[in-house]
Specification:
Blueprint (H helix, E strand, L loop, with lengths): L7 H17 L7 H12 L8 E6 L4 E6 L4 E2 L5 H10 L9 E7 L4 E5 L10 H7 L4 H16 L5 E7 L3 H12 L4 E6 L2 H7 E9 L3 H11 L2 H14 L9 H11 L21 E2 H11 L6 H6 L24 E8 L2 E9 L4 E8 L6 H16 L23
Parallel strand pairs: 5-6, 6-7
Antiparallel strand pairs: 1-2, 1-12, 3-9, 4-5, 4-8, 10-11, 11-12
């Protein structure tokens, strides 16, 4: 499944913005001095309850507005931006996770040589639709071979495995058990698996990392966020566990020359209320990765306001003028609403981070905070100016017309 191409909704938004600028002229971009009062008004509003906020010009690195930007806050799912950046330090966007299943020299024994694929799917139909590795298909493929080698349906099975998520392995065990097969498991090393293997049955590959990461950012997938952070931790030499995430994130920031003082990361999803980052820290991360080929998948994976992902319903009612012009990662926990990404301001794009972690712990408080952020951003969000073509110019559509 290709996530990068614009959806029909996205195309509609782009066409509306394009038509508006072509027919009536693009709205003039606001000057920095006019934007600061807008953000200050939002920052001191009751709805946001004194958040951490910052707005940067990524072309110059200039800070246009700051409000408690250095205070440490609960980022919620904004922490997934750290997970994405850390993983891209060690793995390229076109990397694919590989899972191979093999028979063993021992009878009724299956070997699973994994690579910690973070996005295996339990629903076979959904796996096909989304291009994900299907756990039911692995089970069926393995069972067909094992039954054939045995000459009859097997009733016992030993699974030797490495680099498999325990939840995925448990699902497979349950699938075998549902077929009245008694299953035992044993974790082995890659060397032991190679020594014991007899014949390769099948190899399964994930989608490219870029598409998996797009999904994580677009829909704020917590499982993916945590698994990607732990994978980065493993590649950094800190072990595949949550305990290594903090050191891994600190190393990423250090390499980008970003001050990580006060950073606290106990998971990679942002679900923990113990996580702490500052708006300044996040803004600097977005600044250093902006238009950087190594981290390009982060920018491309962020959802767009009023168009897709977790931003699909944002701006639609609260601030329609911002639809299609705000590309940000969202965050939500009880008492926390956060936002981090990019705002198109006419001829320039701004980096914005807002973390409101002191709002009322109820639905109305969360909605008011979301709307306050949306309204503030929409006040200075403007489409890219487009020079009107001459009367003889021809614009070719996707069908060549």
């Amino acid at each position: 499944m290709k996530l990068r191409p614009l959806s029909l909704v996205s195309i509609s938004v782009v066409l509306v913005v394009f038509t508006t600028t072509m027919t009536s002229g693009a709205p003039a971009a606001l000057k920095s001095s006019a934007i600061s009062p807008i953000l200050k008004s939002a920052a001191i509003s009751k709805s946001l309850a004194h958040p951490g906020m910052i707005l940067l010009d990524p072309e110059t690195g200039e800070s246009i507005f700051e409000y408690s930007a250095d205070s440490l806050r609960m980022p919620a799912s904004l922490l997934k931006i750290f997970s994405a950046a850390a993983l891209l330090d060690y793995v390229s966007p076109d990397f694919r996770f590989t899972t191979e299943i093999l028979t063993s020299v021992e009878p009724n024994t299956l070997i699973i040589a994994g690579s910690l694929d973070p996005w295996m799917e339990r629903d076979g139909v959904r796996a096909i639709k989304m291009g994900r590795v299907s756990l039911p298909k692995i089970v069926k493929t393995a069972l067909k071979k094992l039954d054939s080698d045995s000459g009859a349906p097997i009733t016992t099975l030993r699974i030797e495995y490495y680099k498999m998520h325990s939840t995925d392995l448990d699902f497979m065990k349950a699938q075998f058990a549902a077929r009245n097969i008694k299953v035992s498991t044993a974790r082995v090393t890659a060397e032991e698996a190679q020594l014991n293997s007899k014949e390769s049955i099948a190899t399964f590959q994930s989608l490219p990392l870029q598409q998996i990461m797009d999904w994580m950012l677009l829909w704020s997938d917590n499982t993916l966020g945590n698994r990607m952070a732990m994978y980065a931790s493993m590649k950094a030499g800190n072990g595949y566990s949550e305990s290594g995430i903090q050191k891994t994130f600190e190393k990423t920031l250090e390499d980008l020359e970003i001050d990580s003082t006060g950073l606290k990361a106990v998971d990679g999803s942002g679900l923990s209320r113990s996580n702490r980052v500052s708006a300044q820290m996040l803004a600097q991360l977005l600044l250093k990765t902006y238009k950087n080929d190594k981290y390009r998948t982060i920018y491309g994976g962020l959802p767009v306001g009023g168009v897709n992902g977790t931003m699909t319903k944002r701006f639609v009612k609260s601030a329609p003028k911002g639809i299609g012009l705000v590309r940000t990662k969202t965050g939500f926990l009880t008492g926390v609403i956060s936002l981090a990404g990019y705002v198109q301001g006419g001829d320039r794009e701004y980096i914005f981070v807002g973390i409101a972690d002191q709002i009322p712990k109820n639905r109305s408080g969360a909605k008011a905070a979301r709307d306050a952020f949306d309204v503030a951003l929409a006040k200075f969000a403007k489409p890219v100016p487009i020079i009107s073509p001459s009367p003889t110019a021809v614009i070719e559509n996707s069908n060549g017309g």
